[in-house]
Amino acid sequence: MTDLVLFIVVLGTLLLVHELGHFLAARLRGVKVDEFGIGFPPRILTLFEAGGTKYTLNWIPLGGFVRPAGEDDPDVPGGLAASSKTTRALVLTAGPAANVILAFFAFLFAFRFAAPNLDQVIIAEVEPNTPAYEAGILEGDLVMEVSGIAAENFRVIQERIADSLGEELVFSLERDGHMIEVSLIPRIKWPEDQGPVGVTLGYPPADLTWGESARISLDSMQSQVVGLLQLPGRLIAGEASEEEARISGLKGIHDMLAWASSVDRSSDRPFITLNIVGVISLGLALANLLPIPALDGGRLMFVFIEAFIGRRISPQFEGLAHAIGFAFLLILMVYFNLQDFINPITLP
Known about the structure:
Blueprint: H1 2-28, E1 33-50, E2 53-68, H2 85-114, E3 121-126, H3 131-135, E4 142-146, E5 149-150, H4 154-162, E6 169-175, E7 178-184, E8 199-202, H5 210-236, H6 250-260, H7 269-288, H8 296-309, H9 315-342
Antiparallel strand pairs: 1-2, 3-4, 3-8, 4-5, 4-6, 6-7
């Protein structure tokens, strides 16, 4: 149930932010908006009406929608289709831009508040009645050395313990800024859910500054965009697998978020979850900019064609193109969601 709530909150936020971008751009450019809805119809109630816009609350809690006046009819005064090419382009790009901004802040908060310091190892949990518990090891202790071997990562510690079952080990720990040493003997036999020592290892917070977090966030976004743009070429060249290029549906997104909330080290969950939110939000922005009719990118394509040829495409033809594009997108959505059930995505 918790995973379902997280899925609804994340997906709803991604979609609502996207529509909010369209809405704010439309209002700033003087485009009439008939309705801004939270959730999808059927409507529960009209919250209020201001500036000629109805603000509504709807039953399906997955994002929201914007209904600009005259979206496809240039004969509606003050409507979207009757607006200038610049205004239409700005309103159409504002939705994906809002998702890009959301992605940046998701990455920013992930690195600023939840990023792990991979250069140190911390005791995340100590099980009662275990060698670690009896030796006085506490949650929050930093592991510096294990019998003279620098504790550079999990693997070093785990290998040192595995090689010393039934033999004394000396843990050099940093606790509250002070160095201490404790001795223990790893068990030869232990409960299935504990291990020979009885601790769960983790990483301490990285304690990055806002500037460092912003730089890493922008680098992460750049890497993702470049990777997505290069993916078709890598697929053709055989350098990328089909799994790597796979598009997830709603179940795939749910599964990723559920996996993030179930990782063994609870301290890592916020970092992983926020990164997934950032990746999905940026992917949603790029997908919406594809030149497919019915998508923002498809509508932008008609604006660019109009600017290039110097005259407007027939509204009837454009409307038909968007209707066909919408039907095509529905088919793709059904296919991707079926794939999520038939062949679930592979998670670590």
